[in-house]
Amino acid sequence: MSKKNRSLWIQTKKTRGEGFYKKIPKIGAVFYEKLMDSDMIKIQTEEIASEILSKVDNGKILDIGSGPGILLKRINEINPKLNLYGLDISKSMYKRAKKNLEGLEIELILGNIMETEFDSNYFDLVTCTGSFYLWDKPIESINEIHRILRNNSKALLFETYTDYDKNKFKESLTENMKKIKLHKRPVAKRLLKKQLNITYTVKEVEKILKKSLFTDSFSIEKIILSNLPVWLRISLCKN
Ligand SMILES: C[S@@+](CC[C@H](N)C(=O)[O-])C[C@H]1O[C@@H](n2cnc3c(N)ncnc32)[C@H](O)[C@@H]1O
After folding, report:
1. Is 58 helix (H, G, I), strand (E, B) or coil?
2. What's the CA gap between 212 and 51, in Å, rounded?
3. Residue 66 alpha carbon, nearest atom of ligand 1
4. Architecture of domain 3-238 in this structure
5. What is the pLDDT of residues 121-145, one digit of tens each?
6. Which of 1, 42, 87, 189 has an alpha carbon 20 to 30 Å from 149's alpha carbon atom?
7. Would the pTM of this model clear 0.85, i.e. be above it?
């Protein structure tokens, strides 16, 4: 990436990062939730939920950047025995999740993953979808995941990356847009492309993890979610 593009990338990331979400108004959170209400996201949620549930069938799971709580709701439907927690920096998202998860035994916390009040060695699994790329202090936040995760447990982060295969993406995007209502397509497309532009490259993710407490116990795999070849499965193992 050229110096100019790099500085542009940093600027964009700053204005679209955790600070942006922290201040997102109620209408922004409602808009986000409406946009997520599509077959494309339903398939993605199903795939992530089934992967998480194949790793743990009891204990405590934390979803970082839980947004409106869609993933937590689905996991609870499949396995109500699990103790589920959602953490989000945005008050508007937190309130949406409270509403969507009303009556369910799911604990929602308003806060930043950089520093939480959870006990050490608390969670049996930590996950997040499309949130890590927004964190202002990624190394400190990854180290916080290390602290709150139980020994011999895993964190599974599902994140998009910016150096994806553009040709494969183009092919699958056209197919995928058919799973979104016609009037939502232009915005969904624009937001997805914006996200892909400001997420990390695989090398950048690797660099961050190498500097964290998971330095020699992580893996990064390129995966397809909901037919889109733009995702990474970042596995962090606490030994
Ligand atoms: C793109 S949304 C993804 C929401 C949800 N995971 C989903 O897949 O629909 C990113 C979420 O991460 C949250 N977030 C960003 N930075 C955070 C941080 N440092 N700690 C906790 N949550 C954060 C935002 O408020 C937002 O709800």
Report:
1. coil
2. 25
3. 6
4. 3-Layer(aba) Sandwich (3.40)
5. 999 999 999 999 999 999 999 999 9
6. 42
7. yes
Tokens of 39: 């077959």
**Bridge partner residues of 127 (DSSP):** 63, 156
Residues 142-147: contacts with CB under 8 Å, at least 24 apart: 142/208, 142/209, 142/212, 142/213, 142/214, 142/236, 143/212, 143/213, 144/113, 144/114, 144/115, 144/116, 145/64, 145/113, 145/236, 146/212, 146/213, 146/214, 146/236, 146/238, 147/120
Q: Are strands 218-225 and 228-238 parallel, antiparallel or unpaired?
A: antiparallel
**Nearest alpha-carbon partner for 105 in 123, 125, 79:** 79
pLDDT of residue 9: 44
pLDDT for res 190: 85
Q: CB within 6 Å of ligand 1 — which residues?
A: 18, 21, 36, 64-67, 70, 87-90, 93, 112-114, 129-131, 134-135
pLDDT band at 16 (very low <50, low <70, confident <90, very high): low
Q: How far is the CA of 112 from the centre of ligand 1 (A)?
A: 10
Atom number of ligand 1 nearest to Cα 90: 25
Mean pLDDT computed over 31-51:
93
Q: Please give the distance, rounded to the nearest whole angstrom, from the Cα atom of residue 68 to the centre of ligand 1.
A: 9
**Which ligand 1 atom sits closest to the C-alpha of 136?**
19
pLDDT of residue 80: 97
pLDDT at residue 108 tops 70 = yes
Phi, psi of 75 (to 5 degrees): -65, -40
Whether the per-residue pLDDT at 208 is higher than 70: the answer is yes
